[in-house]
TrEMBL record, chain A:
GO terms for molecular function: steroid dehydrogenase activity, acting on the CH-CH group of donors. InterPro entries: FAD-dep_OxRdtase_2_FAD-bd (IPR003953), FAD/NAD-bd_sf (IPR036188), Fum_R/Succ_DH_flav-like_C_sf (IPR037099), Fum_Rdtase/Succ_DH_flav-like_C (IPR015939), SdhA/FrdA/AprA (IPR030664), Succ_DH/fumarate_Rdtase_cat_sf (IPR027477). This is Succinate dehydrogenase / fumarate reductase flavoprotein subunit. Residues 490-601 form the Fumarate reductase/succinate dehydrogenase flavoprotein-like C-terminal domain. The active site is at 325 (proton acceptor). FAD binds at residues 18-23, 41-56, 231, 418, 433-434.
Automatic annotation (TrEMBL), chain B:
Residues 251-293, 325-362 are annotated as: Disordered. Belongs to the succinate dehydrogenase/fumarate reductase iron-sulfur protein family. GO terms for biological process: respiratory electron transport chain; tricarboxylic acid cycle. One of its GO terms (cellular component) is plasma membrane. Residues 5-92 form the 2Fe-2S ferredoxin-type domain. Keywords: 2Fe-2S, 4Fe-4S, Iron, Iron-sulfur, Metal-binding, Oxidoreductase. This is Succinate dehydrogenase / fumarate reductase iron-sulfur subunit.
């Protein structure tokens, strides 16, 4: 081993990479199972992406409408994902999210209340009943702060009992993991660096939970922060795990497009839930023209009916502004393409003319405040200019639904949260992510803990692998002939935004793949100026490799899937094809190259498919599957 | 559409640094953080700066802009004059790591010391019932994005490193207040804690913290003042005092001087340099007096105890699956000692800058 570069060593039972909702919940569970747990995060503790979630966390508690229950939530989730979801994950999610939300109250969370003192729930696109537990429009902040404070309280217990806050759970903030280390097929540890000092650090641990979030930084217009470089996706691939559904990216329909200081920043869906409407430059409320057949029955046909819904949801159908996100994003895209957009290339979102200024300030306080301070836009007085922004990746690590254990060849690797795939199918409903983090974070943490219990021997970190990881990490600093990482990032963003964006075509995807191959060569030679101490250029240089391989997965899968579904729209194959619903596209790494495989979707259990009526299923299933459904229904009679 | 604007940005690390001049293109509608990003992408790729959300939601991008503590993602360029040079420096209260990044671990230590929410024993998850009006007071404080601007601006620690051990700062006063006002929190000594352990008495209500809070939390009016008032009430109203002695013994310690019964350890070293008295005083004579007394040498030191065992009566060691009985080597088990001397990278601090021979005198 080269001792010229110091490497700090740590030993843990479970290492959780990521300190967002999923990571923190997993760490709490592993610590409660008695495991020595490390939490690793690229930014400071409590700043992970989860902090930005606004709308709320979906859980069928039935506090506002008592007709809500897990079956209805399950149905909404499957519909939203266009039936491509892993049904078991959707089932577990719908069943367990109420408990996970209630549990947060015992950690100290303070959600907004109903009149009878329960947790209040709000309406959101795609959810049949008011279902999102919320705190104004800063639900993510409440969630992450609560989990952060729960971890502190566990540390206080350890301090009391064992004399050290960090005896059993320690947070490594501003620390980036660049490589997972394997002993054969088993996870043995993780290698990374402290951002602050540039010193290297090695965690030896038999179980690793990935909770690294998404990939949005590969796009020009995105609501995502610098952290979202697809690290977890890439780490998993390189460790021998597989990714599924990578072609499905959610473009949030209402990101700000003007002024530039707020470009990409979200206008929460609750603006529409609370009465905001979308208008084109002719002043027309255009969403009525874009209700697809599958949703025709649930959405209003006239403005009058839509407006009545806000006060009387039981007797009226909902406004089309509340269609699932992919539909709204596509509608906006079509309006802009048809020349009816705003000067900055978006449409108008108007709440100012529909609600009183006082009501807007009360119901959407941080929206109001954010736009006032950030952009000098007063949302109570003028409409906002919005357009689609890259928001969420449905695809991710292919996992076992019950345990969160990664598929592929690797053992001891678990994934939860945005980095895992399957739960949301081809499109995620708003609010389903925050509850997903809690449900599957807990499961992954618990199963990682029990995995370490059944290990006969502890995997060993191979010396050679550490040396390789070290060398790869130092390489950009040692080269001075390569390109500036910021330029490479801009080029990558241009390729992804222009060619693998919201509307896709075969020729462009083919072009994108060639350009990504070129970029791969350039990224391999990237060089970073400066030293190791808090050097953002160097950090980006190391992240680029991850962004690139994840982008390749997305482009490849998008080219392969010849249909339009949820977060994947092909101009050359504009409709949904029931045949493709039975297929998941799975990415794995073959040496350096991305390999794509077709894999059949697991078949839904009879009692679950029985929750849908046949006419609805007919829109999604093949004739063969429908015949099977009829046969089973007959048997039951 | 952009035009050039003048910037002075502090570059350096804990060993020192200075302001450097940059002229950068600025476009309409941009904020200071946009400009810093532009610099990173062009002239200064290694310029260190924290950020995450670029939307005023995460509290990462705190810095001092023209001397004022601000979130750089929320500071619009249009608030400056065209010809004005914008000076950007790191937060002053915390040690610099590099450029605009400071070591804010002080805040995380204080967070860890503040006792956590105590759930009511008789309520199961799902049974919590609270009214909106009752949760709103705590919710105001839970808006905090932990930007630590209030901590940075508070004069008690801004230029007084020596006060840091004894003083948690406004961010954590409102954390205590939030729990104090939480309708279902089972702990009843939040105010005493703020007074006795967090150094609430140091605060003389200058309201600087409230002024800089980007979330517009009324830190002083809604958090600190009510906490102070009630602490004062309980300690000086003879009836309350007597009542607490008679009815709530053991639950409400009377003052720091004999708080040992609670098992709390008075921070020794905390006040060894004496109190820093503020002009106008803290408005709380007892706190000043108490602080003057310094360490309470008569406190009862807790007895050393055995660590707790788990339900099988064993020590809670989690190295079950580990391949050796003792602790692993912190240097890695594949490193053998002594190391070959040519691989050592230790350099004596005086080795580099002193001519050979002179260093030997040390
Ligand atoms: C603006 C916005 C609004 C949203 N609103 C909602 C909403 O209302 N409702 C909802 O349900 N969802 C919402 N979402 C989606 C939701 O917030 C995210 O999907 C979710 O927070 C992801 O959580 P996570 O735990 O998976 O990861 P994150 O919270 O993103 O955390 C990822 C963590 O991994 C760490 N990490 C990453 N790579 C590495 C590495 N290499 N080494 C070490 N650490 C690493 C990061 O530092 C971070 O701590 C919103 C998203 C955005 C952007
Ligand atoms: S009011 Fe108190 S806490 Fe706030 S800045 Fe002044 S002294 Fe510090
Ligand atoms: S109270 Fe305000 S200023 Fe202080 S850390 Fe919180 S948000 Fe920042
Ligand atoms: S970057 Fe999040 S507050 Fe400024």
């Amino acid at each position: 081993m080269t001792t010229t570069t110091r490497i700090e060593r740590h030993h843990y039972d479970v290492v959780v990479i990521g300190a967002g909702g999923a990571g923190l919940r997993a760490a709490i569970e592993a610590r409660l199972a008695g495991k020595k747990t490390a939490i690793i995060s690229k930014s400071l503790f409590g700043k992970a992406h989860t902090v930005m979630a606004e709308g709320g966390a979906a859980a069928a508690m039935g506090n506002v409408n008592s007709r809500d229950n897990w079956q209805v939530h399950f149905r909404d989730t499957m519909r939203g994902g266009k039936f491509l979801n892993n049904f078991r994950m959707a089932e577990l999610h719908a069943k367990e999210s109420p408990q996970r939300i209630w549990e947060l109250e015992t950690y100290g969370a303070l959600f907004d209340r109903t009149k009878d003192g329960k947790i209040s729930q709000r309406n959101f696109g795609g959810h049949e009943y008011p279902r999102l537990a919320h705190v104004g429009d800063r639900t993510g902040l409440e969630l992450i702060r609560t989990l952060q404070q729960k971890i502190v309280s566990l540390q206080q217990e350890d301090k009391r009992d064992l004399g050290d806050y960090e005896a059993r759970i320690k947070v490594f903030s501003e620390t980036t993991i660049t490589e997972l280390l394997l002993d054969g097929d088993r996870v043995a540890g993780a290698f990374g660096y402290y951002r602050e000092s540039g010193e290297f650090i090695l965690f030896e641990a038999p179980a690793v939970v990935l909770a690294t979030g998404g990939v949005g930084r590969s796009y020009k217009v995105t609501s995502n922060s610098w952290e979202y470089t697809g690290d977890g996706h890439a780490l998993a691939l390189r460790a021998g795990a597989t990714l599924i559904n990578m072609e499905f990216l959610q473009f949030h329909p209402t990101g700000m497009v003007w002024p530039p200081s707020v470009k990409g920043i979200l206008v929460t869906e609750s603006v529409r839930g609370d009465g905001g409407v979308l208008k084109n430059s002719d002043g027309k409320r255009f969403m009525f023209d874009y209700v697809p057949d599958v949703f025709r029955k649930q959405y209003a046909e006239t403005e009058e009916e839509a407006d009545r819904w806000y006060t009387d949801p039981d007797n009226n159908r909902r406004p089309p502004e509340l269609l699932p996100r992919d539909e709204v994003a596509r509608a906006i895209n079509s309006e802009v393409k048809a020349g009816r957009g705003t000067p900055a290339g978006g449409v108008y979102l108007d709440i100012a003319s529909r609600r009183s200024a006082e009501e807007i300030r009360r119901r959407l306080p941080s929206m109001y405040h954010q736009f006032k301070e950030l952009a000098d836009v007063d949302i109570t007085a003028e409409p906002m200019e919005v357009g689609p922004t890259c928001h969420y990746v449905m695809g991710g690590v292919e996992v076992d639904p019950d345990s969160g254990a990664a598929f592929g060849t690797v053992q001891g690797l678990f994934a939860a949260g945005e980095v895992s795939g399957g739960m949301h199918g081809s499109n995620r409903l708003g609010g389903n992510s925050l509850s997903d983090l809690l449900v599957f974070g807990k499961r992954a943490g618990g199963h990682a803990a029990s995995y370490t219990d059944q290990l006969a021997s502890r995997p060993k970190v191979p010396v050679g692998a550490v040396e390789d990881a070290l060398e790869a990490a130092l390489a950009p600093l040692q080269r001075d002939t390569g390109e500036n990482p910021y330029h490479l990032q801009q080029d990558l963003q241009a390729v992804m935004g222009d060619l693998v964006g919201i509307i896709r075509r075969e020729s462009e995807l083919v072009d994108a793949l060639t350009r990504l191959a070129e970029l791969r060569e350039r990224v391999a030679k990237v060089s970073a100026a400066g030293g190791r101490r808090y050097n953002p250029g160097w950090h980006l240089a190391l992240d680029l490799r991850n962004m690139l391989v994840v982008s390749e997965c997305t482009a490849k899968a998008a080219l392969e899937r010849q249909e339009s579904r949820g977060g994947h729209t092909r101009e050359d194959f504009p409709t949904m094809d029931p045949g493709w619903r039975r297929v998941n596209l799975v990415c794995a790494l073959d040496g350096d190259a991305v390999r794509l495989e077709h894999k059949p979707l697991p078949k839904m259990r009879a009692e679950l498919i029985g929750l849908f009526d046949r006419t609805e299923l007919a829109k999604y299933l093949t004739d063969e599957e429908l015949a099977d459904f009829d046969a089973r229904a007959e048997e039951a009679n | 559409m952009g035009n050039k604007r003048e910037f002075r940005i502090w570059r350096g690390d804990e060993t020192g640094g200075d302001l450097q001049d940059y002229s950068v293109e600025v476009n309409e509608g941009e904020v200071v953080l946009d400009v810093i990003h532009r610099l990173q992408a062009t002239e200064a790729p290694d310029l260190a700066c924290r950020w995450n959300c670029k939307a005023g939601k995460c509290g990462s991008c705190s810095m001092e802009i023209n001397g004022k503590p601000r979130l750089s993602c929320m500071t619009r360029m249009s608030t400056f004059e065209e010809a004005e040079t914008v000076t950007v420096t790191p937060l002053r209260t915390f040690p610099v790591i590099r450029d605009l990044v400071t070591d804010v671990s002080f805040n995380y230590e204080k967070a860890r010391e503040t006792p956590a929410f105590a759930p009511p024993a008789d309520l199961a998850p799902g049974e919590y019932r609270m009214q909106q009006v009752d949760v709103e007071r705590s919710q105001e404080f839970r808006k905090c994005i932990e930007c630590f601007l209030c901590q940075n601006v508070c004069h008690v620690i801004r230029d007084h490193e020596e006060n840091k051990p004894a003083f948690s700062g406004p961010r954590f006063f409102i954390r205590a207040a939030e729990l104090d006002m939480h309708p279902l929190d089972a702990k009843t000594d939040r105010k005493q804690y703020a007074q006795e352990e967090q150094g609430l008495g140091f605060c003389n209500i200058t309201k600087c913290c409230t002024e800089v809070c980007p979330e517009h939390i009324k830190i002083t009016d809604n958090g600190i003042i009510p906490m102070k008032e009630r602490v004062v009430d309980r300690r000086y109203d003879p009836l309350v005092w007597l009542g607490s002695k008679i009815f709530r013994r053991g639950e409400t310690p009377q003052s720091t001087a004999n708080s040992a019964g609670k098992g709390s350890v008075v921070h020794s070293g905390a006040r060894q340099t004496g109190v820093h008295s503020h002009a106008g005083g803290s408005g709380d004579p007892a706190a000043e007096a108490q602080a003057q007394q310094g360490v309470n040498w008569h406190r009862e030191v807790p007895h050393p105890t055995m660590p707790a065992v788990d339900d099988r009566g064993r020590l809670p060691l989690t190295e079950l699956t580990f391949d050796r009985a003792a602790a692993p080597s912190p240097f890695g088990d594949d490193v053998t000692f002594p190391l070959p001397p040519e691989h050592l990278n230790f350099a004596h601090p005086s080795q580099d800058d002193k001519p050979a021979g002179e260093g030997d005198k040390h």
